[in-house]
Amino acid sequence: MTETQTRAEAFTQRIAQMIEAMTAHDLDALMDHYDDGLVFVDSASAQRFTKDGLRDFVDELWVEQPDFTVRMAASHALGNEFAVMLEASASMPRRVSGEAVQVSWVIPVIYTFDPSSLKVVREISFSDEEAYQQTLADLGVA
C-alpha cells in the first residue's frame, strides 16, 4: 500500500467520524477532530472562522436545519490535503404551503490535516450559491 493510499484511508476514516458526529449533533465529538489553531473558510459567506467560530457556525446550522446531514460522495488525497465532495440534505418548508420538502446540494470541501495528530488544521468549504438558490427556487423553497 502506498503512503498516499494509507493517508487516504486515514483521512476517510476521520471524515466518516466527523459525519457521524454531525448526524448525532455531538458538537464536542465533532470539534475533537479540529486542531485548536483551525482556520475554517466558508466561501459562500466569504467568512473565516477559528475553531470557536466553527463551533458557533455548526450550532446555528443545527438550530436552522435540525435534520441537516451530509455524506461523502467522492474524495481524493494529495499530501496532507483531502478534497471531498459532500452531498448535504435537509428538509425545508415550501414558501407557499409550508410543506416540508427534502433539499439536497453539493458541498466541495478541502481539508488539510496535521500529519501527526490527524486533526484538521484548515477547512475550506465551497458553494455554488447560484445553483443552490436555483434548486431552492425550483422546489418552491426560496
Helical proportion? Answer: 25-40%
Global outline: globular
How many domains? 1
H/E element string?
A: HHEEHEEEEH
Query: What is the count of helical runs?
Result: 4
Distance between the termini: 48 Å
Structural class: alpha+beta
Instruction: Specify the CATH class.
Output: Alpha Beta
CATH architecture: Roll
**What's the CATH topology label?**
Nuclear Transport Factor 2, Chain: A
How many strand elements? 6
Largest sheet, in brief, is:
6 strands, mixed
Portion in strands: 35-45%
Low-confidence stretches: none
Mean pLDDT: 92
Output the radius of gyration.
Answer: 16 Å
Spatially, the strands of the biggest sheet line up as 2-1-6-5-4-3
Task: Provide a descriptive summary of the structure in words.
By secondary structure, the protein is an alpha+beta fold. It has a single domain, classed as Nuclear Transport Factor 2, Chain: A (Roll), CATH 3.10.450. The protein is 36% helix and 39% strand. The protein contains 4 helices and 6 strands. The protein has helices at 3-24, 27-31, 51-64, 129-138; strands at 34-42, 47-49, 69-78, 81-93, 100-113, 120-125. The protein has a 6-stranded mixed sheet. The radius of gyration is 16 Å and the shape is globular. The model has no long low-confidence stretch (mean pLDDT 92). InterPro entries: NTF2-like_dom_sf, SnoaL-like. It holds the Pfam family SnoaL_2.
